[in-house]
Amino acid sequence: MRIGGVRLSRRAILAVITVTTVAVVVAVSLTLSLRSSPTRARQYTATTACLLTDATGTAPGTSAATAWSEMQKASLRSRAKIQYLPINGPSTTQNAVPYLNTLTQRQCAVIVATGTGPVAATAGNAHRYPTITFIVIDKDQPQQHNLVSVSAANNAQLQAVLQQAIQRHDA
User: Fold this and answer.
1) pTM of the predicted model, to two decimals?
2) How far apart are CA 14 and CA 128, in angstroms?
3) N or C: which end of the chain has fewer CB within 10 A?
4) If we measure between CA atoms, which residue out of 163, 161, 169 comes closest to residue 141?
């Protein structure tokens, strides 16, 4: 057989057909696998919400566990990243401040605080970080322009405040 003035042997023709067939099969397989495979990695927004707890962390039955559960729900709805950081040692204001500073350096847009030390440290330092929204689980804390106080028993209020704070930072 001649193609473009060049004579090809049967072996050469068979090799061209085989290579072409393999290339088509690979291309079709890749196209189908890309279309049918669901995305496994969760796509997050740029907003991160963080929970600051006392040394018990998110142990069951604590206000931190409730707050963490509500933060998980808010993350599913908003696709905001969430993380928590328990303080190490006694739950005092002085001990909690370095952990609060860590969360601010991690670029947490929303910081939720539970426990005596974390709540006191947050309430006392929120004014230093005007672009961060702070939520304290303590009904007795006075409101500030960037600090909201929520009762530990009011999950619906916590969820609403979290959603508003996350949406404000996503905008």
Assistant:
1) 0.74
2) 75
3) C
4) 161
Distance of CA 76 to the CA centre of its chain: 9
- Burial call 69-94: b when 16+ CB within 10 Å, e when fewer: ebbeebbeebebbbebbbbeeebebe
Q: Is 87 helix (H, G, I), strand (E, B) or coil?
A: coil
- Segment 9-47, tens digit of pLDDT: 777 677 677 878 877 777 777 776 666 556 667 688 889
Enter the tokens of residue 17: 């057909």
CA distance linking residue 42 with residue 76, whole number of Å: 10
Alpha helix (H) residue ranges in 37-132: 63-78, 93-105, 116-125
Angstrom distances, CA of residue 147 to CA of 28, 48, 112, 136 = 56, 17, 10, 7
Which of 53, 106, 48 is closest to 75 using CA atoms? Answer: 48
Residue 82's φ and ψ, nearest 5 degrees, are -130, 150
